[in-house]
Amino acid sequence: MFTSPRPHRHDVLIAVTGLAGGLTLWAAGPHTQGGRVLGGHGAALVPLAVTAALELLRRTRPRTALALGTLALIADRFTTGSLATVLMYTDLMYAAVVYGSPAAARRIPVTAFLVTVAVTIGLLAWFRRPEALLLGVVTGLVSFAPALTGVSVRNHREAAEAAGLRADRTGLLAETDRARAVAAERSRMARELHDVVANHLSAIAIHSTAALSIDDPATSRDALGVIRRNSVDGLAEMRRLIGLLRESGAAGPPSAVPALSSLDSLVEQAGANSASSGLTVTLEDRREGAAPLPVPVELAAYRIVQEALTNALKHAAPGPVTVRLEHAREVLTVEVSSVLGDRPALRAPGSGAGLVGMRERVALLRGTVEAGPEPRGDGAENWTVRAELPVGEGM
Q1: What is the mean pLDDT of the chain?
Q2: Closest by Cα among 343, 346, 260, 240 to 306
């Protein structure tokens, strides 16, 4: 069973006020015209009551209210007339534009304008007097003016709704960007933690296993020395990283960020850690002048070398481990190669997160990274990690 929606309380207030005002004017005696065709002075109450009742539909059935209101206004012209009826009709015209469909909002003002022009021309042709223009103006004030006002109000309302939607969309995009930024920051922190901890813990794991497995005081003493050195260095690295994470609002990159200038120390430390495994680590810096590079590039290159040396310590067969740096054509090439093959030395298990971190770092700089076996001249194979990092303006 269909039930019509209840009238809005404002519509009820308008209807009651309009009816009360019309009854007051009727009781006081003033009316809008002298001649009348239908009934006596009380006939004007019928269009008044109908128009007041239609005010209850101004928001829920605007087109129906306007159509019936037009008929009531025409009927009012055949009575002594009531100003309240005319005023309530202008409100029905306004409401039909504001609350009606978009098509009705476009058509009603045009129709009202054409009716105003037609009435003005018709009255001029009928009366042939300039005073007929005043009736045309009144017709425009009753029909076209409220319709035009309704168009303006509707446009402002739609603009406000569009602005609200844009604000909601902007808020959603901002929240999405914030979530992406948080995810990116978590990934960066994960890479930093892995790169900082993995190198030292791998050395500690390997040498502690050797100290427990080999019953030799000298070997155990050397292993414990390596373990202590890596424990102290790892703790210092962790404290440095925690300090960086606590910093906020610092201008420029922190000075404690690892750079290629300290790569020789990293290589020296890796050589000391892997000496018992039969690995010899060397650095070949083929850069001309070794000028400072952008901080993100230097940090990525340092971490790539660090991770590659950690993997060599865990997996490489005895032999040379070579770190090469080359800067040509606005590209920094970082290469770490080690002997591929099984070795009897004990290894620490790896999870593969280091290679993932390498690829993420290189991808952020729009570079490339490759890792895999390469043939050597003596028939053996090397495991080579090679990264190319752009260092130009467009990086």
Answers
A1: 80
A2: 260
Return the sign of the alpha-carbon dihedral for residues 94, 100, 103, 108. negative
Q: Which of 220-234, 241-255, 300-314, 373-387 has the lowest mean pLDDT?
A: 241-255
Q: Find where tokens 């590079």 sit.
A: 293
Token duo for residue 3: 């039930």
Q: Is the pTM of the predicted complex or chain greater than 0.85?
A: no
Sorted by sequence, the CB contacts under 8 Å of residue 132 that are 6+ apart come out as 120, 123, 124, 126
Longest dimension (CA), the chain: 129
Is residue 242 very low, low, confident or very high in pLDDT (cuts 50, 70, 90)?
low
C-alpha to C-alpha distance for 395 and 376, rounded to whole angstroms: 33
* For helices 145-213 and 295-315, angle between their N-to-C axes, nearest 10 degrees: 40
Residue type, 175: E
Residue with tokens 């519509």, as numbered in its chain: 11
Residue 198 burial (10 A CB sphere; 0-12, 13-18, 19+)? buried
* Interhelix angle 83-99/45-54, nearest 10 degrees: 20
For residue 335, what are the CA distances in angstroms to 40, 255, 282, 366?
Answer: 107, 25, 12, 17
Collapsing DSSP to helix, strand or coil, 279 comes out as strand
Please name the amino acid found at residue 389. Answer: L
What residues does 382 pair with on adjacent strands?
339, 374
Domains of the chain: 9-171 (no CATH), 257-395 (3.30.565.10)
Of 27 and 215, which is predicted with more confidence?
A: 27
Q: How many CB atoms lie within 10 A of CB 79?
A: 24
- Comparing 190 with 126, the larger pLDDT belongs to 126
**Burial environment of residue 283 by CB neighbours within 10 A (0 to 12, 13 to 18, 19 or more):** middle
Instruction: Classify the C-alpha dihedral 124-133-18-68 as positive or negative.
Output: positive
For residue 234, how many C-alpha atoms fall within 13 Å in the half-sphere facing its CB?
17
Place of tokens 């309380």: 9
391 confidence band (pLDDT: 50, 70, 90): confident
Buried-exposed string 339-375: b where 16+ CB fall within 10 A, e elsewhere: bbeeeebbbbeeeeebbebbebbbeebebebebeeee
| DSSP-assigned beta bridge partners for residue 338 | 383
